[in-house]
Design goal:
The protein is mostly helical. It contains eleven helices and no strands. The chain has a single domain, classed as Heme oxygenase-like (Heme Oxygenase, Chain A), CATH 1.20.910.10. Helix 5 runs antiparallel to helix 9 and helix 8 runs parallel beside helix 11. The structure holds 5-(aminomethyl)-2-methylpyrimidin-4-amine.
Length: 215
């Protein structure tokens, strides 16, 4: 079995809770209360900031140019269409400027930021791709089955699904999984344990992030 699949199975309960979360189900059927979506968007925009920093660090530490380029390309999507999605959604949902730039952080948001910065500062590529892989793979897993619902949804729900589904996004997740598989296979037993801890902590935080925004 691929190491990434083994890692996922090692925390399958939290994985399943995150990828079938009522927040995602209600987003996809259009019944998610707008106050919850606004809270989520404001928290997630701060998540994106540290995600970009972690991805930049992973690009720097990747073993070769072919390993670097897919993530570099994906950063362009985050800086472009994904960033524009947030701006358009903030406008449409009347999220105040102060909430857009400096919301009071919920505990899972600050814990996730700390984990991303810790992974970046560790200087270990395996730790970095463990966290990045979880963040995108969890989103592919919940969003992909929901794509048929998109047409009937307002853009602030529908585009959040399409940004995390489809052939291109699948290729991003496949890239992160194969980078994680390789880094894990090359690591010694103690480094493998550390990679596993990052992976499991990131899955737990994905679940807690939805819990906190949905509460
Ligand atoms: C918390 C979280 N995790 C993952 C993603 C996927 N881009 C996100 N936007 N926010």
């Amino acid at each position: 079995m691929r190491p990434s699949e083994d890692l996922k199975q090692s925390c399958i309960n939290n994985w399943s809770a995150a990828t079938t979360h009522p927040f995602c189900i209600e987003l996809a059927n259009g019944s998610l209360p707008l106050e919850k979506m606004k809270r989520y968007l404001a928290q997630d925009y701060t998540f994106i900031d540290n995600f970009v920093r972690l991805a930049a660090s992973a690009i720097h530490h990747a073993p070769s140019l072919p390993d670097r380029l897919p993530l570099a390309h994906f950063l362009g999507i985050i800086a472009g269409p994904e960033n524009t999605y947030f701006q358009r959604s903030f406008d449409m949902l009347n999220v105040p400027k102060s909430e857009q730039t400096s919301p009071e952080l919920l505990t899972p948001t600050s814990d996730f930021q700390a984990l991303m910065l810790k992974a970046a500062k560790s200087g270990e590529y395996g730790n970095m791709v463990a966290v990045l892989c979880v963040a995108e793979w969890v989103y592919l897993s919940w969003a992909e089955p929901m794509v048929d619902a998109v047409e009937a949804l307002p853009f602030y729900f529908g585009e959040w699904i399409t940004l995390h589904a489809g052939e291109y996004f699948e290729s991003v997740v496949e890239h992160l999984r194969s980078q994680l598989d390789t880094a894990y296979n090359k690591a010694d037993a103690s480094q493998q344990e550390t990679i596993k801890e990052y992976f499991q902590q990131a899955v737990l935080l994905e679940k807690q992030f939805f819990d906190a925004c949905y509460a």
